[in-house]
Fold this sequence. Notes:
Bound molecules: nicotinamide-adenine-dinucleotide, 6-O-phosphono-alpha-D-glucopyranose, manganese (II) ion
Strand content: 15-25%
Distance between the termini: 54 Å
Strand order of the largest sheet: 3-2-1-4-5-6
Number of strands: 12
Mean pLDDT: 97
Amino acid sequence: MKKFSITVAGGGSTFTPRIIMMLLDHQEEFPIGKLCLYDNDKDRQEVIAKAFEILLKERAPQIEFSYTVEPEVAFTDTDFVMAHIRVGKYAMREKDEKIPMKYSVVGQETCGPGGIAYGMRSIGGILEILDYMEKYSPNAWMLNYSNPAAIVAEATRRLRPNSRIINICDMPLGIMIHMAKILGVNEKEFDISYFGLNHFGWWTQIKDKEGNDLMPKLKTYVKEHGYDIHVESAQHDDESWHETYRKVKDVYAVDPETLPNTYLKYYLYPDYVVAHTDANYTRANQVMDGREKTVFSAARDIIEKGTAKDCGFVVDDHASYIVDLARALAFNTKEKMLLIVPNEGAIENFDPEAMVEIPCIIGKDGYEKINQGRIPQFQKGLMEQQVSVEKLVVEAWIEGSYQKLWQALTLSRTVPSAGIAKQILDDLIEANKGYWPELK
Ligand code: NAD
Ligand code: G6P
Ligand code: MN
């Protein structure tokens, strides 16, 4: 069986160990010959890499492992680039979250002004990696988790329309695992219909393989508890995530015909979100004190002991999704998965030039979209506003336009007025010096 070469871009990410552990779990179905970590922060990556040098020597010595900050080394002879970079790292995430909160506006990693600021940083970083990949391994696929995926996807649609990049998000799978637990079934048995933008979508159908409708039973639960239920997973388990899962109850109430993505709370209940956010200790602080510490101390522990026996690295659903996608492309499995792709009629009554999140069939030539037909007025209205925000951000980045970025912020449902949008924008420009193109 062919052995694949994988490059993890953002090798120093807190999610890198989970993805590598998942790859190791799948060596029979998806064997790896070469694994290379790439990052632009040498010191951060080195901690993770040195730990894996030890772990892989013990558990999978047949894999040729390396790590580098040199693009040519990282992207030559690779089959899959799994990208999860965070341009500006947690220090900038913290600013994205705290600056809007000064104006009592949602401060969030991917939604509202924080997501817009992050988008303005990410576009250049992703294009750079995509260009390296195409230069050194033109037949490779880039599977991109780097956020904000909606803005990154629109940027690559506009600027690299023929690139082999697939943008993805783990949130729908995370939610479906909760749904499966609520129903007492396995999420692999679901047959779903779903439409929307990234972090902005709805399920319209959830059936089992026999065609039985599972929505009524789910709705009965969601009406009371949202999607909150205990699942064994390393991801989405902090109290703030449970709160998000619970709040789905109120998001669902606005349209009981569909089941919503958790992220819609930021757009439908921004006042509630602001009231329940500690402006001095946001999600970035929770992650720095939580996941980042746990992952890096597990790595340091391996390095100190010189062995990965009983190590603290875990796997989760985030990792299973990207590994399943790579395997589906490699082996033409024709699995159905949600991807962020150009609409081009898949949602009939929506902008054909929008990047939408819909089910696709994955095979070795890429993906085929599954048409989702016409969507209701409520969702269509929300999506038109949000997709315009995302398009304006990309236009602002391309043209260096202050005006367009101000319009983007003004149009976001999370921002109450053009005046507040302008104040937030001016603060964000100051904070993002050196990361954003200069705006005129
Ligand atoms: P992290 O800060 O721990 O890791 C990001 C790494 O990227 C860092 O090591 C950093 O040095 C590196 N990096 C930054 N800019 C780079 C560049 N230009 N080139 C190469 N490397 C660069 O962040 P994290 O919390 O582990 O998250 C990583 C990314 O994955 C984020 O973008 C996050 O939003 C995203 N994510 C997406 C999903 C999804 O559903 N799409 C789910 C989880 C995480
Ligand atoms: C979900 C989303 C990701 C996002 C992550 C944030 O998994 O799909 O796009 O990056 O949550 O999680 P965190 O624990 O970093 O706040
Ligand atoms: Mn996501």
